[in-house]
Amino acid sequence: SQELEQSPQSLIVQEGKNLTINCTSSKTLYGLYWYKQKYGEGLIFLMMLQKGGEEKSHEKITAKLDEKKQQSSLHITASQPSHAGIYLCGPYGDYGQNFVFGPGTRLSVLP
Amino acid sequence: DSGVTQTPKHLITATGQRVTLRCSPRSGDLSVYWYQQSLDQGLQFLIQYYNGEERAKGNILERFSAQQFPDLHSELNLSSLELGDSALYFCASGGRRTGELFFGEGSRLTVL
């Protein structure tokens, strides 16, 4: 089964700082999703990456999938308190794939 | 608003009891996924249904069961509840071509 690891487990940064969260797969990914969860709420879709080397940006969040499609990074530029939450990566497969997420990275942004 | 509706939002019950959580997927979505999230376990995939049939099973206990009805809403039944079952239970729908999931706001279960 697909195993996903995320690092770091938790992260505390000062507002305005840049940060990077990593997601590593034990197997080559068909694609990968990034989701964000505010504490105690449902998950919100951020981005989907499917091609090796693909990079996508949304506002101040950039995600990239490496060429081998086994590692993805999510980078936040000039972090804000609104970026706080839990970031989870999940594998994308064919229709009907088990949607098993990584353990998540807890981000706190101090004002 | 994701379009996925979960009820109830909060539920407090006692050990040994049985509860039913309900989920209405987004209009047009045939797949429903159930997840359990507790503080120490993270987001755990429980089960997936597609158009009324079980499609995939994750870490779902035998005391738990689910079903998807002809109108596509789904119910998650939790029985013989234990303290450790206290968690947020999420339902999600989606999984069409892109596979993106849309999550409900969750049902928070507290077992006393």
Structure summary:
Chain A has 111 residues and is an all-beta fold. Chain A has no helices and ten strands.
Question: Your description of this structure?
Answer:
The complex is a heterodimer of chains A (111) and B (112). Chain A is an all-beta fold and 111 residues long. In chain A, 0% of the residues lie in helices and 53% in strands. The radius of gyration of chain A is 13 Å and the shape is globular. Chain B is mainly beta and 112 residues long. Chain B is built from no helices and 11 strands. In chain B, the strands form 2 sheets. In chain B, strands 2, 4, 5, 6, 9, 10 and 11 form a 7-stranded mixed β-sheet that branches. In chain B, strands 1-3-8-7 form a 4-stranded antiparallel β-sheet, with no helix packed on it. In chain B, a hairpin with a 2-residue loop joins strand 5 and strand 6 (53-57). The radius of gyration of chain B is 13 Å and the shape is globular. The model of chain B has no long low-confidence stretch (mean pLDDT 92). Chain A binds chain B through residues 31, 33, 35, 37, 40-45, 48, 88, 92-93, 95-101, 103-104, and chain B through 2, 4, 31, 33, 42-43, 45, 48, 50, 55-56, 58, 88, 90, 92, 95-106, 108.
Please render the helix and strand layout as text:
The complex is a heterodimer of chains A (111) and B (112).
Chain A: E1 4-7, E2 10-14, E3 19-25, E4 31-37, E5 43-49, E6 55-58, E7 61-65, E8 71-76, E9 85-92, E10 105-110
Parallel strand pairs in A: 2-10
Antiparallel strand pairs in A: 1-3, 3-8, 4-5, 4-9, 6-7, 7-8, 9-10
Chain B: E1 5-7, E2 10-13, E3 19-24, E4 31-38, E5 42-50, E6 53-57, E7 64-68, E8 74-78, E9 87-94, E10 101-103, E11 107-111
Parallel strand pairs in B: 2-11
Antiparallel strand pairs in B: 1-3, 3-8, 4-5, 4-9, 5-6, 7-8, 9-10, 9-11
Rounded mean pLDDT of chain A is 88
Number of helices of chain B: 0
The separation of the N and C termini of chain A measures 40 Å
Task: Compute the number of strand runs of chain B.
Answer: 11
Q: Report the major sheet of chain B.
A: 7 strands, mixed
Overall outline of chain A: globular
